[in-house]
Every structure is written in structure tokens, then in C-alpha cells.
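Sequence, please.
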């Protein structure tokens, strides 16, 4: 009789264990429909930029140290600029010279030049008339045998030369009055545009000798030092963009429909256990992946999960790269897109 009672007790215990295990499995696989929130576990992640000069020269100064917080547009480092300064000065001088050439062509002939041309034409005309009259007088004298044929021929040549000089003076005056050709002005203007572009290029090359912060952040590493040779392909500084940061976590497939993009979240860390950071779901991966290798149980490794990023503002710099974090997300919440920016925190 005692043996029978003992068997009954054992059967009851086994049955209770089986039922408990089945319920645990069911809740693990399908979730508890009465849960109002979900907790995720992950690590803080940030973006970084490798900052390099857009020029090749020796580094003159690096104005920041590792750990310094910098603002967007802040000067971080610069190169030696002796050669670039000389190139800029040359470009300015060449531009000034070409501007004078264009101004001269556009202004046309000066009144004094036109007056001089008129005077030269008048003198040439008078000389042409004088030599022609002399030639005609000698022709009459030849008929009376008072002049030789050689004198007449010389007088004729002088008259022809004087008339040619008169014609040349006339055309010179016409050119002065008409001013420069349009084609010459166009060529000069094109050359001026080229010189202006050359000046812009020289100014930009000089500006490329400065390295500015592309955004607010923290200097994580000084890769080069003053005196090192900088190249566009060689980073000088590493800048961490620390606001916003995000917690990289993973969602199971069953939770995808309950955690929408833009949902508000609460973030807690072991470093500041009494502080809660406001965040939002800013990214859900469109593709599934196996549970990361950092999760060491064989059962969890074989499950497919979706990577998510829960963004948070980090104005005080308390959330640091790699820091473990716990994320709580209320289910079935009303989305408020205006809260999903650091400016609204």
C-alpha cells in the first residue's frame, strides 16, 4: 500500500514538471499575450570618421588632443602653406594684369589717340598733295626741256609714296575710331575668366591646408603628429560622432510586429543605474541573421533574429562605445515622430 502511494506521488511530480516545461516552452516560443513591454540587451555603438587633409604637405599644427570634444566647423589642424601662399599671390597678380587688358580693350581708343590719328592723316594728305603738285610741274618742265626724265621719275615715285602714306594714315584713323575687334575682346574676357578660375583654385588649395570638424564629436585618436607628411589617403585624426548614439540589439521574429520603427524606448546602463535615457527605435534590419556568436548557448545560436538600433541622445557623453545597456520598449504605443530627435529631448 505504501509502495502504491509512493508511485502516485512520483507520477504527480513528473506530470507537474512536464506541464511546467510545456508552459515555459510555449511562452518562450509564442510570448505572453499579456506582456505590455519587451526588454532587449545590447551594447552602445557609435559612428566614427577618419579625418584627412585634401592636400599633400607637412603638418604644421594639430590643435586638439585625444578626448577633446569639438564642434562642427572647428579648426583641428593645418599644414605648412609657404608654397600655397606664393601660388595664391601669383594667381592674384596674373588676374590683376588681365583685368587691365580687358578694361583697355573695352574702353576703346582714347580721344588723344584719335586726335593724333587725324593729325597724321592731315600731314600725310598735305605731303601727298605737295609731291603730286611737284610731279605735275616737272612734267611741264620736261616738255620745255627744262627738267630731265630722271627728275620726273623721282618726283612721281615720291608722289606715289606720299599717297600710300596718306591711305595708311586714313585706315589707321578708321581703326582708332572703330576701337578693338569684338573677337579680341572676347579672347581677353575668356583669358580673364581663366585667371579668375585659377585664383579660386589657388584659394581652395590654401583652404585645403586646414582640417575642420565635419560634425560635433570627440577626438578618439591622433594618428599623425606635427612634422609628419600628410596625404589625402592618410587619416590624421579619428572623430567619434557621439550624439546621437545607439544601442545595437536583436529582436526575435515574433516581436517584429509588436515593436514598430520609431517606437519610444528607455535605456539603462550598469554605469548609471539610477539614470534612464530616452531613446527611439531608429532602425530595424530588413533581413534576418543568426544570433551573434557572443550568445554562447547552442539553442540561441540557431535562432534567426533581426538587428535593431535604439537611438539615444548623448549630450553629456555618458553613453560610451561598447557599454552594455538594457532597453525597455512599451508595446502597442502611439508613435510620436517629433520626439525622435535629440533637439526634442
Amino acid at each position: 500500500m505504501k509502495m502504491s502511494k509512493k508511485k502516485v506521488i512520483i507520477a504527480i511530480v513528473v506530470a507537474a514538471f512536464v506541464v511546467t516545461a510545456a508552459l515555459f516552452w510555449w511562452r518562450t516560443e509564442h510570448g505572453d499575450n499579456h506582456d505590455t513591454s519587451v526588454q532587449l540587451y545590447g551594447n552602445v555603438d557609435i559612428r566614427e570618421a577618419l579625418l584627412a587633409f585634401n592636400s599633400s604637405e607637412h603638418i604644421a599644427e594639430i590643435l586638439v588632443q585625444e578626448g577633446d570634444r569639438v564642434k562642427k566647423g572647428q579648426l583641428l589642424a593645418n599644414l605648412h602653406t609657404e608654397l600655397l601662399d606664393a601660388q595664391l599671390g601669383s594667381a592674384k597678380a596674373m588676374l590683376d594684369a588681365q583685368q587691365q587688358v580687358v578694361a583697355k580693350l573695352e574702353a576703346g581708343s582714347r580721344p588723344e589717340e584719335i586726335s593724333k590719328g587725324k593729325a597724321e592723316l592731315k600731314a600725310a594728305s598735305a605731303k601727298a598733295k605737295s609731291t603730286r603738285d611737284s610731279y605735275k610741274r616737272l612734267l611741264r618742265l620736261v616738255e620745255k626741256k627744262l627738267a630731265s626724265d630722271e627728275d620726273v621719275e623721282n618726283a612721281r615715285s615720291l608722289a606715289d609714296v606720299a599717297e600710300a602714306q596718306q591711305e595708311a594714315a586714313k585706315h589707321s584713323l578708321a581703326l582708332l575710331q572703330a576701337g578693338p575687334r569684338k573677337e579680341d575682346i572676347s579672347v581677353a574676357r575668356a583669358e580673364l575668366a581663366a585667371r579668375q578660375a585659377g585664383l579660386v583654385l589657388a584659394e581652395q588649395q590654401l583652404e585645403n591646408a586646414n582640417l575642420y570638424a565635419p560634425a560635433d564629436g570627440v577626438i578618439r585618436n591622433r594618428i599623425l603628429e606635427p612634422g609628419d607628411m600628410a596625404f589625402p589617403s592618410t587619416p590624421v585624426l579619428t572623430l567619434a560622432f557621439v550624439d546621437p548614439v545607439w544601442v545595437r540589439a536583436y529582436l526575435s521574429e515574433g516581436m517584429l510586429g509588436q515593436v514598430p520603427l520609431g517606437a519610444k524606448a528607455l535605456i539603462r546602463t550598469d554605469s548609471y543605474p539610477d539614470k534612464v535615457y530616452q531613446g527611439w527605435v531608429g532602425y530595424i534590419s530588413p533581413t534576418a541573421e543568426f544570433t551573434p556568436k557572443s550568445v554562447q548557448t547552442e539553442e540561441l545560436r540557431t535562432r534567426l533574429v533581426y538587428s535593431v538600433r535604439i537611438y539615444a541622445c548623448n549630450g553629456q557623453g555618458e553613453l560610451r562605445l561598447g557599454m552594455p545597456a538594457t532597453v525597455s520598449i512599451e508595446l502597442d504605443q502611439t508613435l510620436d515622430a517629433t520626439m525622435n530627435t535629440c533637439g526634442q529631448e
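Residues 111-143 form the longest helix (33 residues).
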